[in-house]
Amino acid sequence: MNSPVEERLRAALAEAGATIDPETLRPLPAPARRRTWMDARLLVVGAAATAGVAATAVGLSLGSGDDQIAVAEQARIEPGKADMTIIMCSTSALVVKEPRCGGRDATAAQVSAVERAVRGLSQVEAAYTVDQQRAYDDFRADFAHNLPMLDAVKAADLPVSIRLTLKQGANHREVETSLRALPGIGGVTENTATEEVLESRSEMLVNVFLCGKGSPLPSCGGERKPDGSMVVKEGKAATSAQKNALKKLIDGMPEVKSYTFEDQQAAYDNFKRAFVSNKTLMKSTKVSDMPESFRVVLKQGSDWAAPVATLRRQPGVASVFYVPCQKDTMLALSRYGVHSPEDKVCSPGS
Questions:
Q1: Percentage helix, strand, coil for the chain under 3-state DSSP, each rounded to 5
Q2: Of 139, 119, 135, 137, the residue nearest 127 (C-alpha)
Q3: What residue ranges do the domains of the chain occupy?
Q4: How far is it, in rounded angstroms, from Cα 304 to Cα 181?
Q5: ∠ CA(181), CA(85), CA(144), 5° rounding?
Q6: Which of 34, 104, 223, 317 has the CB geometry, 3.0–4.6 Å to 233, for a possible disulfide?
Q7: Which pLDDT tens digit goes with each residue over 128-175?
Q8: Which CATH class for the 30-198 domain?
Q9: Domain 205-345: which CATH class?
Q10: Fold match between domain 30-198 and domain 205-345
């Protein structure tokens, strides 16, 4: 079973993949990586000597006294270069809650145990443990363009994480399965699929996703348990009348340049073309996972906030995303394990 952070990221990928023009996606060539495992300390020397990559000694302060660890020197893995990221348990309000974490932060002992387990996996090439301050520095660099997000997220909001690079030909699903049950892990995100989405072109696009049968979203009449672990009430799918009303509403919006409607099959076909090389993602995604949507392109320079706010209030609408904001949300979730509501990701006029 996927963790809440993985479910949320997969849903975001499904939404984004359903609305991406596959012609805008560049295929990501498999990196030419060494096929033999090397101790991380040796990678420090090799990287510094051949590529000018600075070696960093990371000190994790996860508590006080005995509950502190200093990680051995590791070759730094940039957030955009990791194949996978292990998100450790965190009590931060911005981290998607994983029931097995029991409402507690990962301990130093648990982080050390995960590090040892990672280095014992033959398919892992390198690992880099990221404490809160290092994560915050990277977070600020990634979102320097997004001041509202920087204001909303502090160093204490970010979980400890471990970035991984995998050997060429590695089976991502096997690596995930090997790690998933370890104590202290809140989730494992596969960064490759998300980075593919982020390579797509940026435009003034608003994705209006419609309610599907059984949706747990409150906007569709659904409901989850307070801890988010189980759906206690299933929502209803958007009706034909609601879809027609939305079409009429969009037709009358002065900010709209053009729009198209995408049903589940069309969304899935588009998704398959966009992620044909990602077998793990394709295997876990079905036609029924794809939301129906209106793809609304706004006129250049128009205010996106007014139409987004109006569309969110309409019956039959599950969620509405302004694409530049959605991309930042996905990046924050995939790389750092934090979920920022869209109203904190960017503000009108940004």
A1: 40, 20, 40
A2: 119
A3: 30-198, 205-345
A4: 42
A5: 145
A6: 223
A7: 999 999 999 999 999 888 888 898 899 999 999 999 999 998 988 899
A8: alpha beta
A9: alpha beta
A10: yes
Which tokens go with 133?
């301050």
- Contact (Cβ atoms closer than 8 angstroms) between residue 69 and residue 88: no
Alpha-carbon span 320 to 311, nearest angstrom: 7
The DSSP output letter for 287 is G
The DSSP element (H or E) to which 260 belongs, if any, is strand 256-262
Concatenated DSSP letters for 141-203? Answer: HHTTT-HHHHHH--GGGSPPEEEEEE-TT--HHHHHHHHHTSTTEEEEEEHHHHHHHHTSPP-
DSSP per residue, 65-114? TTS-EEPPPEE---TTT-SEEEEEP---TTBPP-GGGTT-PPPHHHHHHH
Question: Per-residue pLDDT tens for 231-242?
Answer: 788 889 999 999
Taking the C-alpha atoms of residue 123 and residue 279, their distance in angstroms, rounded to an integer, is 17
Tokens of 119: 């280095």
**Cα–Cα distance for residue pair 162/201, rounded to 1 Å:** 29
